[in-house]
Amino acid sequence: MQEFPITRAAVLKPKPDSKTLKFGKNFTDHMFLMNYTASKGWHDGRIVPYGPLSLEPCAMVFHYAQEVFEGMKAYRTPDGGVQLFRPYENARRFQNSCERLCIPTIDEEVFVEAVKQLVKVEADWVPNEPGTSLYIRPFVIATDPSLGVHASHTYLFAVILCPVGAYYAEGINPVRIYVEDEDVRAVRGGTGFTKCGGNYAASIRAGERAEEKGYAQVLWLDGVERKYIEEVGSMNVMFQIDGTVITPKLTGSVLPGVTRKSCVDLIKSWGIPVEERLLSAQELFDAAQAGKLDEAWGTGTAAVVSPIGEMTWEDKSVEVCGGKIGKLTQKLYDTLTGIQWGRLPDEHGWTVKVC
Ligand SMILES: *Cc1c(COP(=O)(O)O)cnc(C)c1O
Question: What's the confidence (pLDDT) of residue 166?
Fold first, then answer.
């Protein structure tokens, strides 16, 4: 694999205090860039000082949102090294997202190498405090200077990095969620299975409304029948009902999370039955009211797992697991974070060493 050329920043920034890091506020000294043109394909991969991009106001991404992104992390291990968690899963999902948005795909090896080489240059930025990590945001944007609605002929791929604090600085507190019955996040045939900015733009209103009512996240229903549970906020969601773990199946409108997949693998390896299937809000609330809902939690790279302590749907509210984190949720959190930060043996071959 090629070594990408590096242009070093003349002045390095002071590192922020890793005890008080905010999500997505401080970016490192360098970024990765690579361009696409129809004649050259993807070319000129390079590591350069982090800084503003210059784009035409008519650049396609600003108007038609031809854009996709990824979210992953680099973790500091006890031996002082740095590692990634299942980066090829992100590379493949990035390709699937690109394909749906008519963006030319990037070779998986090139994607992972871009991330690895950039993280290696910025290894000093990977924080040490418990629970902290270096968040990695690869993204690609359509750059054609034209308002015509068609696939762009030119693109920019970039990777930026920001150190992030422990998600649960004050301990894991189960959240209150609200079943959204007006807005939908995605529909089958749309872009729900991709990580594209447009999905997020469409989800902001429901999130803001839920927050105003005192809820942390919304529980999304499917966009066609408004019956089936799909995701919670920007996380996948799992429920343990009468011992069995149920998670919405990947119908096309659900994002195939790396954390979701890893949780399913772990839960199966522990001998607990897992079903990937349609689950209606009715079935979920019936189970809760019958006392059969053992635990409920969201999964995603940022929080790893996020326990749900209370759910509201129309005029019905149910408490989950006494408003406390459940045993299985805690075990998933401990196991996944143990593997990610290198405190537990990686029996599944999920981690990739950077340095
Ligand atoms: C990123 C994302 C997830 C979680 O995916 P991970 O790979 O586990 O981080 C879930 N839902 C949505 C909508 C997402 O964008």
Answer: 86
Q: What is the pLDDT of residues 24-82, one digit of tens each?
A: 999 999 999 999 999 999 999 999 999 999 999 999 999 999 999 999 999 999 999 99
Q: What is the DSSP string of 63-110?
A: HH--EEE--EEEEE-TTS-EEEESHHHHHHHHHHHHHHTTPPP--HHH
Q: Judge whether 80 and 15 are in contact, CB under 8 Å.
A: no
CA gap 85, 89 in Å, rounded:
9
- Decide if 102 contacts 151 (C-beta within 8 A): yes
What is residue 167's three-state secondary structure? coil
Rounded to the nearest 5 percent, the helix, strand and coil shares of the chain are 25, 30, 45
Distance 180 CA to ligand 1 centre (A): 18
Question: How many A from CA of 26 to the centre of ligand 1?
Answer: 22
The angle that helices 87-100 and 108-121 make with each other, rounded to 10 degrees, is 120
Distances (CA, A) of 39 to 35, 36, 58: 11, 9, 22
Cα separation of 113 and 138, whole Å? 12
DSSP assignment letter at 4 = P
With a 6 A CB cut-off, is 86 part of the ligand 1 pocket? no
Mean pLDDT of the chain: 96
